[in-house]
Amino acid sequence: MENTPQTQTPQEAGVKLEELKKKLEEYVEDLEDLVHEYDYGDFEDNLPAGLESISKDAYNADLAKSEEEVVTSAADALDEQVEKALEQGKALREAYDKGDVVNMLSKAIEQYANLIAINALLKYIKKYISVWSVIEGDLETFTKKASDTIAILANYIAQQKLELEAEDAEDIHNDTLYYHDLAENWPDLEEGLDDVESEIENDPELKRGTYWALKNALKLMWEYYDTGLSYGVGGEEIAHATYDDEEDTYKPENLDVETLLLNMTETYAYFTALKVLYDSIVSDYATNEKFEDALNRAINRAKDVIDIILESYNN
Fold it and tell me: Mean pLDDT throughout 194-221?
């Protein structure tokens, strides 16, 4: 899919921006505070309140001492991610009010990553306490609202005139090649995670409850590793389409900007969630420099690709 620039007058651009804001109005209103107020009665979907109750329940749960210290760490991380998601929601509203498309997308992506991390932490905590299905439903709803917001903005940006040069296309391809290398050539992330798991499995000082609490976290970490890497490899396939091997040059007009933005968003979000699981639950018991370095690169490469595209947007 080629990126075909559209030339438009300032008046046309203004109209398009207002149309975009109208599409996003309800999404931004809900994502600002992660609360949806219904037009009838006093009923509302209040995600922060629901997640706060889960965090408190985790602290009050009847758990073995060896489990408690791990599970409460996850509860603390849940509180932190909710706070970050709310900060990004406020920043999204500010960008929306200013008509700042680039910052709207940047803040929506950050908030989406926070929500994916919240999903991961909730999956973990659910292994130890009961969670109301309505809270899970609210989380699913707001996560989808963030995803839909990103999709609308990615579609809008892809239709605009982007100042992408051959050098930009090459940089994008080089960044995404990292995921291909992780999957095929230099599996530092996989090997690092294997080493973390091995360290936990061979630690004679871990109590039984702590051991299984960490193993549950590692199982989730493998899940988020697989998903993040899958999206990253898909991003490399999209970026590779810009390379013309006959002419040995890059053609940015062949870049599917919209799909690449969505792929890199998912890559960034799932690897961010993986980092949250590692930092908040596992790293107090086992660490691995190879894993940490590879994970930071995986997160940063996705962000670099997104930033290159956003910098090319003729705002």
Answer: 97
